[in-house]
TrEMBL record:
Organism: Paenibacillus whitsoniae
EC number: 2.7.2.1
Keywords: ATP-binding, Cytoplasm, Kinase, Magnesium, Metal-binding, Nucleotide-binding, Transferase
Entry binding sites for substrate: 91
Protein name listed in UniProt: Acetate kinase
Function of the molecule: Catalyzes the formation of acetyl phosphate from acetate and ATP. Can also catalyze the reverse reaction.
Length: 401
């Protein structure tokens, strides 16, 4: 069975076609600048030459039609006909409280995703465009949706409620949801395999550190806490997002700087974090480069980033009353030996014996970066959210037959 995974943004669409039998990626690619007469299509068939084109693509349905043409093309294609694409899996950011698992798409599911537009105004409408487009371009092909929030629905009220008037929760669903769930779930399962221990026995802290960043406390395979909240702004310091701050700053700054709600929202989401503190870049590679060249602001941004992550690890170890392993994943977690070192060398109180040599080795493999004697294992595990989406879709579609 072949499953097409789609991650739709408001003006872009990324895709991967998986052959489930051997977990191979047959092709992947993206369509950028949807809505323009100069949309960019990039298509990478496995083992074949990368294909690029610039053409008019005005909406998502045309984008998916073009993707299907390329996947079935005599030269660039990897399957012979659309009937070789057995199912489509979509990434949807916000599943609210309604979705605790991935589900097949039907009218009720679409209605519920629309109801959640308020909670994820940037992301859910874009995902819905992808779903509608795939339905139009690939009629009759079953579709599933996989939510970033679903894995964290196991959190207890003590972790997901904010200490504010409960009417806000009852009336407006103001609560913590958490994100990056497919990634936290995937790396926690891989961690158990790498450690050779049942997931059911483990207490894990998973750190998904990319442009967006969150960590999760996972007991027996279930998320019990996570750093992102009602929106992906809470928690760790990120590339352009502030993460945690005193909420009183918002009205104070709005008054002093005469900012509108939209402006303050944009400041905290797009003009804060590493980029704002360093004044250089929101990209960790450039921060590390500048820091190593002696830039003080870059060093400060890096130190704040590492310090805030270390505090969350401490909090989650406390919350779970112990931790067996800490897992690093995503762009920074997988690649930045400097960041991992800055975080882990100061976790000796937890029983972490960090292996600086293993940490310094550049590799894309799953690996351990703590010594054999370490009481708490530290692991680097490349994430694979698309594979989780493909697997969930596959399992749901199997259930249909
Ligand atoms: P997204 O959240 O957009 O999926 P990624 O998981 O791709 O983001 O992570 C992007 C981040 O990873 C950027 O800050 C980038 O600098 C960082 N990164 C990627 N490669 C490296 C590297 N070799 N060293 C340090 N940071 C890296």
């Amino acid at each position: 069975m072949n499953v097409l995974v789609i991650n739709a943004g408001s003006s872009s669409l990324k895709y991967q076609l998986f052959r489930m039998e051997d977990a191979s990626v047959l092709a992947k690619g993206k369509v950028e600048r949807i809505g323009m007469d100069t949309a960019i299509v990039t298509h990478e068939p496995a083992g074949g030459a990368e294909f690029h084109e610039v053409k008019e693509i005005l909406e998502h349905t045309s984008a998916i039609r073009r993707v299907v043409e390329l996947l079935t093309h005599p030269q660039q294609g990897v399957v012979s006909a659309m009937s070789d694409i057995d199912a489509v899996g979509h990434r949807v950011v916000h599943g609210g409280e309604a979705f605790k698992h991935s589900v097949l798409v039907n009218d009720e599911v679409k209605k519920e995703i629309r109801r959640l537009f308020d909670l994820a105004p940037l992301h859910n409408p874009a995902a819905m465009l992808g779903i509608m487009a795939a339905e139009a371009a690939m009629p009759g092909v079953p579709q599933a949706v996989v939510f970033d929030t679903a894995f964290h629905q196991t959190m207890l009220a003590q972790a997901y409620l904010y200490p504010v008037p409960m009417a806000l929760y009852r009336r407006h669903k103001v609560r913590r949801y958490g994100f990056h769930g497919t990634s936290h779930k995937y790396v926690s399962e891989r961690a158990a395999l790498l450690l050779g221990r049942p997931l059911a026995e483990l207490k894990l802290i998973t750190c998904h550190i990319g442009n967006g960043a969150s960590c999760a406390a996972i007991v027996g395979g279930q998320s019990v806490d996570t750093s992102m909240g009602m929106t992906p702004l809470e928690g760790l310091m990120m590339g352009t997002r502030s993460g945690d701050l005193d909420p009183a700053i918002v009205p104070y700054v709005m008054g002093k700087e005469e900012l509108t709600l939209g402006e303050v929202n944009s400041m905290l989401n797009k003009h804060s974090g590493l980029g704002a503190v360093s004044g250089i870049s929101s990209d960790m590679r450039e921060i590390v480069e500048a820091m190593e060249a002696g830039d003080k602001n870059a060093a400060l941004a890096f130190d704040m980033y590492a310090y805030r992550l270390r505090k969350y690890i401490g909090a989650y170890a406390a919350g779970m009353n112990g931790v067996d392993a800490i897992v690093f994943t995503a762009g920074i977690g997988e690649n930045s030996a400097q960041l991992r070192r800055a975080v882990c060398e100061q976790l000796t109180y937890l029983g972490v014996a960090f292996d600086a040599d293993a940490n310094a080795v550049r590799s894309s493999a799953e690996r351990r970066i703590s010594t054999a004697a370490s009481m708490v294992a530290v692991l680097v595990i490349p994430t694979n959210e698309e594979w989780v989406i493909a697997q969930d879709t596959y399992n749901l579609v199997q259930g249909l037959s």
